[in-house]
Amino acid sequence: RSEYLARTRIQGKLNHKISENKRINTGFEGNIQGLSNSSKFRSRDWGIVFAGIDWQDFTVTGGVIANSNVMAPYYQAKYQKQETQGGMVFEMNNKPRPVHMLFWPAEEHSLAFENWQSLSFNTWKSIYQLIFHGKIFLTRVQEINQYQINSELDRSISKAEPNIRGGEIGIMWSGFRDWVFSGSFRHVIEPSIITDGIGDWLDFRISGKEKIFKRNMNVSFTIGLTGWLNRAPAISFDPFVGIPLKISDSDYVPGDRWILQAEVAAKVASLTVTWRMNNVFRALQPILGIVPEEESWISTNYLLHDKQRQMGRLMEIVIDWYFQN
Fold first, then answer.
1. Does pLDDT of 119 surpass 50?
2. Which residue of 5, 26, 210, 321 pairs with 51 in a disulfide if CB–CB is 3.0 to 4.6 A?
């Protein structure tokens, strides 16, 4: 059975500068969304009205999100301090948002909202050619009005767990030519379907730019190694309809997964050719055998695993050619 999603959004915003350090704004947003399959079609619409002020390092925005039968307040407050050698951002949000269309409300024509409340603190510090950064985040999901899971779905789907708590630290060094070396680690205290069941992320990257052939060609490259660690075996993701799901299959044990990616782009005048491979381990495995055969495939979710649809090299070639008068 196929689902088709139609989406329309209309936005408008007015800004007024009162002084060099003070600005105010107001605006609206209208949304229409529809989903159909072989048996029925459903649509929903909702709107947002908001106003805000930017004053020095502070930003405050508030408004309401509503449709014909539900109205809920939302707000955003942010403090951002930027200096030459570092900075910090503290942000607090209360944002109602419609649930996924496949989590249908109990009433045929009602619209269900979830309230996403979040707190985050982000800071960074530059010391010579090193940049250190850290982040602490907390997100809580609350149900505003009752809704039920669509009984027509033939897979076990659960609504989102209420909390995402964790932190991230990282470092970046750019002391060699136009190259950048970076690494980061992110930890979630309780992996959930919102985080795809991943408890820890490790990411290492090298990127750079060079000029070759008498500086007539600009070449840029990126090499990245990402680790998905401490994954919850009962949590997966449906790539076809874009929703998380819970499973109960003792044969499905995702385990830790490392992904090696590479990208090279060459630009001459207005022509850019980009080569990208999102799973380099699959290409290297038959030659070097640096990783086990079964781990050289990307199997990130239960549906692909269940049908033995492992992802291979995932290679792309993109050509961009811009013409100007």
1. yes
2. 26
Q: Which residues pair with 200 in a beta bridge?
A: 187, 229
Residue with tokens 């190259």: 179
What is the DSSP secondary-structure string of 245-314?
EE---TT-----EEEEEEEEEEEETTEEEEEEES-HHHHHHHHH--S-GGGGSB--SHHHHHTT--B---
**Exposed/middle/buried for residue 140 (C-beta within 10 Å: 0-12, 13-18, 19+):** middle
Q: Cβ-count burial of 104 within 10 angstroms (0-12 exposed, 13-18 middle, 19+ buried)?
A: buried
Radius of gyration of the chain (CA): 24
Nearest C-alpha neighbor of 160 from the set 178, 147, 179: 147
Is the pLDDT higher at 219 or at 1?
219
pLDDT tier for residue 106 given thresholds of 50, 70 and 90? very low
User: Residues in the chain, how many?
Assistant: 325
> What's 103's DSSP letter?
S
* b/e map 164-181, b = 16+ CB within 10 Å: bebbbebebeeeeeeebb
Question: pTM here?
Answer: 0.75
| Tokens 């379907």 belong to residue | 193
Model confidence over 32-90: pLDDT tens digits?
887 665 566 777 788 999 999 999 999 999 999 987 777 888 899 999 998 888 999 99
Partners of 59 in the β-ladder = 54, 78
What is the number of H-type helices and E-type strands within the chain?
2, 17
Write down the pLDDT at residue 241. 60
CA angle 12, 16, 20 (to 5 degrees): 140
Helix, strand, coil percentages (3-state) for the chain, rounded to 5, are 5, 60, 30
Distance between CA atoms of residues 167 and 121, nearest Å = 9
Residues forming beta bridges with residue 137, ordered by sequence position: 120, 166
